[in-house]
Structures are given as C-alpha cells and as structure tokens.
C-alpha cells in the first residue's frame, strides 16, 4: 500500500500543499473550515509518518522543510517534475520541521523506520537544524540543501544570490531618487548574536549598493523584526516614530514588508509617495496587498529541480566535490515604489 504524502492530502482536501503544511503547524493563517477539511482528508488517507513495507516500494526521497508557505509547493513542483525523468523514480515524502530541535528529531525518527537501502536521499529546504549531534546523523545520508543551509562536507546547495539580488533592488530605488534608506532584517529569536545566512547576505548587498552610490552607511540604517507580518507591523511603528523617516524601506521578506505597508498606511504614511517599501521572495501575498509589493522573485520550482539533479549526481558518484548553484532571480517591480 502506497504511503499517503502531503501531496495526497492536499489533493484530497482540494487545497494547496502550503495550506496542508500550515494546518500541520497549527498556523493561525488557516480558517477553521479549511482546517477541518484538511484534517478530515488526513484522517481518510491515514496520513502519518510511518513507512509501510511493500514488495514494489521504490526508493524514498524525503524533503525536509521548515517553511510553511507557497515555497514548499513550488519546490515540490520542481522536484516532481525532475523525478519524472528518473529511472527508477523515487517516491517523494515530506517531513515538516519548525525551527526547533524537536521538529528535526521527528524527521530523524522517521529516517530510522526506513531501511537504509530504500532511502534515495534528503533535500532540506531552508535548513534550520541547529543541533550538532542531530545534524551529524543527517549527514550520514546523501543530502542537498535549498536556500538556508548548515555546513557539511561536501556542501551541496541551491539558492538565490541574495547579495546580488538585494544590491540590485537597492540600486533600483537609488535610481528612482530615494536617498534615506532603511533595511528591516531578522535575527534569531532570543539570540541577537545569530542571524540567518541569507539575512547576512542581503544586508551585505544593501550596504554594497549604498557605498557604490556614495550614500554613507551607518548601523542605524538596519533594524530587526520577526519574520512575520506582525514583525512588519512592529517595524512600521518604529519607523513612524523616527525623527527623520526614511523614504525607502527594504525588507528581507515579503511577510515583513506586507505588515509594514499595512501599518504605515494606518499611521498616515502614503506608499509609495512618502515612502517606498520592498520585499523579498515574491510569495502570493505580494500581489494581493495594496499597493502591490515590489519584490525579488526566487524560482523555488527551479531550485527544487536543480536540487534533485544535484542529488542524483551525488548518489550516482558523478559528483564528488561540494557545489553551490545559484538560480537566477528577477525584480518584480510593482506599485509600492
């Protein structure tokens, strides 16, 4: 009997994979009606992280994701498209992990139920595994990482060139005549000394664009917020209270940017005439908010496909050294600038 996956649950409930993942992670972004549909689909399909033996079982590829947005759906689309070119074609299972040790421990427990010869490999999407002993266990399997990564040897990763993308976005605002800049970035909750690698790279691109334009950079041109719309709301309140407000606010994520735009408008700031606001990722909400959000598009579908091809090369022995592949980004210029 084939194992029910998150893809099967989404199809049964008539919703996106992202919606299923939000339900699993108890997200407040899902209505009770939608939550009930998904839970009922899970019940009907018997969806659970248990591997059932089958004489015809194909190798199993596991996508480990700490993301509960449309990114997951796009990555899965890319992976499944690439799987169709493989022989034999591995089954795809998805293990959702929050940003804590227990969630990755759950994935590790799942791996222990699978015969080693049946596991094709692992793909981590925005890897947040911070426990050394647990990560050492994961490294015993063939693995590739997408986006945020944890050091391993060899390091195989697929991502956007965050520094170049943020530099390009900042440069666009400079050419539009903006001169007072602020970047809303993110740090680990409860640990202000740690940052995600992608935030470090985006901050570097921001600084580089300013320096090349002859605009002096100072530390107070970067503030920090939670990686949520609520974080963007709090950032907007801080910005509105500044003696000299920026005329351009760049956010390291669309969710921060959308919250920021909504609250700035509530506080009487006109977007974009008083202040331009940009995001990063081009998730669905960036086109729904008003004004529509200018952002960086990352092709997570292509990242998913490239990650699988990279994993295939590793498993077959064709790839013996580490590799980082950058997938081309694009600037989605909309109404918020």
Detailed description of the structure:
With 337 residues, the chain is of the alpha/beta class. The protein has two domains: 49-160 and 300-328, 3-Layer(aba) Sandwich (Rossmann fold); 162-297, Response regulator (Rossmann fold, 3-Layer(aba) Sandwich), CATH 3.40.50. 41% of the residues lie in helices and 15% in strands. It contains twelve helices and twelve strands. The chain has helices at residues 6-13, 17-24, 32-45, 70-83, 101-112, 132-138, 162-175, 197-212, 229-240, 254-266, 285-288, 300-316, and strands at residues 60-65, 91-96, 119-125, 143-146, 156-159, 181-185, 222-224, 248-251, 276-278, 295-297, 323-326, 330-332. The strands form three sheets. A six-stranded parallel β-sheet has the order 2-1-3-4-5-11, sandwiched between helices. It is globular, with a radius of gyration of 21 Å.
Average pLDDT across residues? Answer: 88
The CATH first-level class of the largest domain comes to Alpha Beta
Secondary structure tally: strands = 12
Structural class: alpha/beta
CATH topology of the largest domain: Rossmann fold
H and E string: HHHEHEHEHEEHEHEHEHEHEHEE
What does the main sheet amount to? 6 strands, parallel
Strand order of the largest sheet: 2-1-3-4-5-11
Radius of gyration using CA atoms only: 21 Å
